[in-house]
Amino acid sequence: MKFLPGDKKYSFFNNIHIDIDLKSIIRVNHAGEMGACQIYRGQIFAAKLKNFSEETIDQLYEMLEQEIEHFLYFSEKIINYKVRPTLMSCFWKIGGFFIGFITAMINEYYAMACTEAVEEVIDIHYQKQIIQIQECIKNISDLDSISTINSFLKNFLKKIEQFRLNEIEHKKIAENHNKYVNTNKLLKLIKRTIKLISLVAIFVAKKI
Ligand SMILES: [Fe+2]
Ligand SMILES: [Fe+2]
């Protein structure tokens, strides 16, 4: 069994404190990426029923593929480091699919407002984690004995930076599709509501 840097049992960290809870980070990211996959699956399901253009469906598939890559990365960490997944997995699975499906069933603009909302939240969420991990690396970098932890954190950081760039790309795709989101009141309201739901879901997944 492996232990994560920061765990009490992790040999390199017996006497060293790091200000970062990696288990919580892995748990919430795993949940978030699961939710993102489900949103795109729901959107694709509805997009086919509603005959969205082939180009839009292809884009949804491309975004889904990237979300699956993100999800698999955190799934591997969940397994390797014995991190308990969130107790709200069911909510993320069903809720994610439902939100994606319903918004896409209304029309493409609502589907893209949903994507924009979720990706905006994830972008900021990853941005905060990147700063946290960078800080953590800075604080431990002068200690030779913890080079394994350093390399773990650096690889982990690289992945989150890459994922964040993907999320920004998804956000841009949604923005390009959705020129009405800032002028239509209902679209604006839906976007705000989905942002709020995402923020609450992230908060909960960090804790449980
Ligand atoms: Fe993602
Ligand atoms: Fe994304």
From TrEMBL:
It comes from the Bacteria. The keyword Membrane applies. GO terms for molecular function: 3-demethoxyubiquinol 3-hydroxylase activity; metal ion binding. InterPro entries: Ferritin-like_SF (IPR009078), Ubq_synth_Coq7 (IPR011566). Keywords: Iron, Membrane, Metal-binding, Monooxygenase, Oxidoreductase, Ubiquinone biosynthesis. The keyword Oxidoreductase applies. GO terms for biological process: ubiquinone biosynthetic process. Pathway: Cofactor biosynthesis; ubiquinone biosynthesis. PANTHER family: 5-DEMETHOXYUBIQUINONE HYDROXYLASE, MITOCHONDRIAL, COENZYME Q10 BIOSYNTHESIS PROTEIN 7. This is Demethoxyubiquinone hydroxylase family protein.
